[in-house]
Every structure is written in structure tokens, then in C-alpha cells.
Amino acid sequence: MQLRSDFNIGAVSPTQWNTLSGSEFPFSEHAFLAALEESSCVGEESGWQPCHLTLWDNQKLQGGLCLYEKNNSYGEYIFDWGWAKAYERHGLNYYPKLVSAIPFTPATGPKLLVHPDTDKENVRKKLLEGALVSMRERLCTSLHFLFITAEELPAFTAMGFLIRHSFQFHWKNNNYRDFADFLTTLKGKRRKEILRERRQIEQQRINVEVLEGEAILPEHIQQMFLFYLSTTDKKWGQSYLSADFFQRLYATMRKRMVLILAYAEGECVAGTINFKKGDCLYGRYWGCNRNYRSLHFELCYYQPLEYAIRHGINLFEAGAQGEHKIQRGFLPELTYSAHWLEHPGFRNSVAKFLEDEKQAISRGIEEFIPHSPYRETVLLPVEDERS
Fold first, then answer.
1. Rounded distance, CA 58 to CA 54, Å?
2. Do the Cβ atoms of 305 and 329 come closer than 8 Å?
3. In order of start, what are the domains of the chain with their CATH numbers?
């Protein structure tokens, strides 16, 4: 088998790339990665320089790894700014570094993509070995894999990577018949609060439309980009994604999209784009052009939950952060990342930091449990013993 470094995802055909196991995660699909690159949302100027790794047996693709050389830590959602400052205090450079992640996308999914008909463990090992070689050839200080799956953990621990724990709030479908059935599982106070928030939508005479696939039109995507732009400018002062990126997603991935739009007096005033694949739904882009009571909750949480229940979708990930989600049926779930730091002194220091952080994360999750909205006792997320 032979490793190859590719400076854009277009070096691999969509058919070959999408046969890899792990590309069932929508953001690992060739079309999503290509939209980021071809719209210049990732590239040298953004600080995400593609240097993907692929593993070949003659002309047959055996494995793939999205990899980026980075000179900053923007758009990652697993924060290592403190590590960079520690390097700087000691007169060392933290950048450039290598990162395996889906840019600007804090969602858990496979990073070590393997053809289903090959030796999975062997291919994963070769991909990780190749990534370490690439890190050293590029004179990078470190190698990071963000939002990896629990199933991938053994491959990283066997190679000596440091595992970092974090958490997000996810919603799970317990075979609910409908949204009303879901509400019956909640404590009375939380159930009444959700019903009150949904009534506010009616009282403001807001109508909601759910579109998917071919029902989504170019003008819907144009409007969604304007919503996204307005929200990101207000919240962060800059936007990572462009109108070109949204148009490319529309052209190549609208079969994965669930678009939820809100109308007031006939005008589209807010919207959210979700992506579906398999038994998962992912909330990604939200925006509005004016403030309405509870509209964010309706479009980003309640409407996607209703959609998931109607379509038998088991998991809804609504994005990073947001402790307010727990009041609306989302519970904390562990997430994982894997890190390799070349400097032995800093590696040891970070290893101790990660162990302390792991304990703090565990305590933090325990503190959320009394605030669960569910009537039945909630079980803590079980830490994967492989981590």
C-alpha cells in the first residue's frame, strides 16, 4: 500500500472517496469538503491549508484522512489557545500544526476513513503513521484529531495519542410517536415552558415551513446565507463561510438538507439548515433578520425534533455549546479528540492537564443531571473505557 498527500479533495474522485466507510457522516462526503475548498472557505488565506492523506493499493483507494496545515486555531471548537500561549511564553512556536477535522463543523464523525473490504485496523494504523510523518516533514509542532468517534479511540491510544474529553448536548429519540409523546416524558415545569414558547410563535402569527431535497429553491439558499451573515456578524464579527459555499452545497448536497423557514406577514424572517444522513440529524446554520420571542428555540430545536420523530431519526446534534438546551430535552454526551505533541516537556504537561480536565468534565456533567427535564432518572453518559 502507498500513501499519497493530496492538496485538494478534487485529487480523489467523489465515487472513490464516498465508498470509504465513515463517509456516511455527511460532512465527510466529497461534496461537502469540495464546497469548502472550491469556494475558498478553506485554503491558505483562511489558515486551513488542505494536505489530505490517502492510502492506495494499486488504483484502489483503501483509506483517507482529511488533514489541514494550520497557522491559527480558528474554526475548530476544541480550544487550544492556552497551549499556544504556553509555547509562546517559553519562546517556542506552536504553529504551524496539523489538524484532522471538518472545518467550522463541531460534529462527531469518523476521521480515519477506511474501505469496507479492507483490514480496518491496519489501514487506520497506516493513516496515523502517515499523518505523523507528514507532521514532521512539514515541521509542524503537533497533530490533532477533533471530534473523533468512540469506536476510533483504540487506534489512537495504541499509537500513544493523548485523548481529550469534552461534551455537547444531544437529543435522542426514544421511539416517540409524536412531539406530544415526547412532552409526556418531561417534568411538568419543563413541559409547560416548551408549550408556552411554542404558543408564542402562534401569538406572533409566525408560520413555519419545512423543506427538503428538490423542494429547496435557489432563492431559499440565498436568503439563508443572508440570515447566516447577519447572525455571525452580530455574534463573532466575521463569517467563515461565503455565498459561493452555500450555492455549492445547494447544487451538490440539497438531498441531505432539511431547511426550516419562518414567515411573518408573508416575509421570510428566519431560517435554519440541517443535514440528515442515516439515523442522524445535524443542526448547522441559523439566522434571522429581526428578533422574535422563542423563534430560535422553535426553528433550531422543536421543529427539528418534530422532523426527527416523524422520520424515525434517532439522534439530533444541534451544534456546540448551549447549556440552555438541557431544558429542552438535550442531555450531555461525551465527545473526544486526540492529540500528539512533539515536544516531550509540553506533551507531559498537556497530559496532566488533560487528566485534570477529564475529571472536571465528569464533575460538570454530574452537576447537570439534577437539572434534567425528564421525569425518569437520567443516566450519565458512560465514558468509553478505551479513552
1. 12
2. yes
3. 2-168+333-371 (3.40.630.30), 174-313 (3.40.630.30)
**For 145-177, how does the pLDDT look when each residue is reduced to its tens digit (9 = 90+)?**
999 999 999 999 999 999 999 999 999 999 999
What's the DSSP call for residue 239?
-
DSSP 297-332: HIIIIIHHHHHHHHTT--EEE--S--GGGGGGT-EE
pLDDT value of residue 1: 86
The alpha carbons of the chain give a radius of gyration, in whole angstroms, of 21
Q: Which helix (H) or strand (E) holds 267?
A: strand 267-277
The tally of CA atoms less than 13 A away on the side-chain side of residue 146 is: 23
Helix, strand counts (H, E) of the chain: 12, 15
Residue 233 has pLDDT above 80, yes or no: no
pTM: 0.94
C-beta of residue 61 within 8 angstroms of C-beta of residue 4: no
Cα–Cα distance, 308 to 302 (Å, whole number)? 10
The answer to whether residues 72 and 25 touch, using CB atoms and an 8 Å cutoff, is no
| C-alpha cell of residue 275 | 443535514
Q: How far, in Å, CA of 98 to CA of 340, rounded?
A: 10
- Round to whole Å and give the CA distance between 43 and 45: 6
C-alpha 197/C-alpha 213 separation (Å) is: 29
Terminal Cα distance for the chain, rounded: 29
Q: Which amino acid is at 51?
A: C
What distance in Å separates the CA atoms of residue 258 and residue 196, rounded to the nearest whole number? 25
The residue type found at 36 is L
CB atoms within 10 A of CB 169: 21
Confirm if 261 and 211 have CB atoms less than 8 A apart.
Answer: yes
DSSP 50: E
Rounded to the nearest integer, the mean pLDDT of the chain is 93
Q: How many C-beta atoms lie closer than 10 Å to residue 262's C-beta?
A: 24
Under 8 Å between Cβ of 146 and 76: yes
Alpha-carbon distance of 329 to 297, in angstroms, equals 12
Closest of 12, 28, 109 to residue 66, by C-alpha: 28
* Identity of residue 31: A
Are the CB atoms for 163 and 355 separated by under 8 Å?
no
